[in-house]
Write a structure and sequence with these properties.
single chain; mainly alpha; Double Clp-N motif; two-stranded parallel sheet; 2% strand; Clp_N_dom_sf; Clp_R_N; Peptidase; repeat
Length: 186
């Protein structure tokens, strides 16, 4: 499948691997793809993120992703659903971090000597497969970084939730990339 990726899309995937390595994560996930997109200064996805005002709010996105990582990757929607069952995720995170240190639930393995190639987790695999489907549906010959961004906006989970919280939705990205380009983040 990677032979169909543009140079920009390949750079995003490589950047995601690097983010996973720096974090000591056991696998590359969708959040790493989003972080890699935020790092890019070239490509169609970068253009869309800048047009939607996310380029200047990248730190807020990184912070939201970090908070989700502290909750073991649970989205706000997941935390709210558990709260409906009487489970306070914030309290659980606080207790675990009190006993084992800040970020104990993140799954990062910085101190565990992780080495070797990073596999792609389910979230990253699903995102890249969805990017392929979006490219095919749009009759695009290659999978670009914009297709990865579009896939992140429609996939349930932390990345899509964080993007939506910052006004970046499938519809707004499509308007910027393929429409009038007057979309504004909310």
């Amino acid at each position: 499948m990677f032979e169909r990726f543009t140079k920009d899309a390949r750079a995003v995937v490589q950047g995601a691997v690097e983010h996973a390595e720096r974090a000591g994560a056991g696998s590359v996930d969708a959040e790493h793809l989003l972080l890699a997109l935020l790092d890019r200064e070239a490509g169609r996805a970068s253009f869309a993120l800048a047009a939607l005002g996310l380029a200047e709010r990248g730190d807020a996105v990184r912070e939201a992703l970090g908070e989700a990582r502290r909750r073991a990757g649970l989205s706000q929607a997941d935390a709210e659903a558990l709260a409906g069952l009487g489970i306070d995720v914030s309290e659980i995170v606080a207790r675990v971090e009190e006993a084992h240190g800040i970020g104990a639930m993140s799954g990062d393995r910085k101190d565990k000597g992780w080495s070797g190639r990073r596999s792609f987790g389910r979230g990253a695999k699903e995102t890249l497969e969805k990017a392929l489907r979006i490219a095919v549906a749009r009759r695009d010959r290659h999978i670009g970084d914009e297709h990865i961004l579009l896939a992140l906006t429609v996939r349930p989970g932390v990345s899509g939730e964080v993007l939506a919280d910052h006004g970046v939705t499938y519809e707004s990205v499509v308007r910027v990339l393929y429409g009038g380009g007057e979309a504004k983040a909310g």
